[in-house]
Amino acid sequence: MFDFPATVVSLDAVPEPYRALYRDKNGSFALDPAVARLGRKPDPRVEAFAALGKSPEELAAMLAEAERVAAGEAERKGQWDTLKAQLLSRHQAEIQGRDAQIAGLRAQLGACLIDAAATAEIVAAKGVPELLMPHVRMRCEVVEENGRQVVRVLDEAGAVRLDGKGRPLAIKELVAEMRADPVFARAFDGVGTSGGGMSPAGLGGGSAGPAAFTLSRDQAKDPRAYRAARAAAEKAGLLPIIAG
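Above: the chain's sequence. Below: its structure in token form.
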């Protein structure tokens, strides 16, 4: 084992792993004071340091380079995390946009299905679609059953109405109810009028026919407002119509 003399004339007398522990002093080389204070028995950590064969400056440079590389890796990871978050946000926005578009198309399809089914039944019952359609729309909804879009009549609570046999009420039956209703009957030919239908004077409230109770479009779209207006119209013997 090397005894670590306090001074040496030449570093050739010191094993190469320990030469970094000596300092040049007036033409000779003195043992590092920290090692000398240990009674010339270096701490195992000092021996491990010496075994590396690197000067303190070289080790400092290596540590600085390792820190630089680690910082670069962290920065690249941070950039990737940011890019990933941006891509995810954009993807979610695209999905939401498509969902909104699909919902809009479904609403349009539902309106077309209701109008087509209701118009056919109203015309078959000799009713006036322009007068009755807003009221039918308020009472109907398109639902998916067994993969198909079907029109269903709803009750006041928003549930599907059933007939006496427990089956969904058909639009034809809804139109028949409206034809028998004292108020809506005036929108059907030959029902509640003495002539072949309701004259323009009747709609306008003139002396030639019944007066009209006008609803705004917002009222017609609100079930509560519609029911209140209908009750008031029935009480007054008027026909509710939708304002243009």
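Residues 193-211 have pLDDT under 50 and may be disordered.
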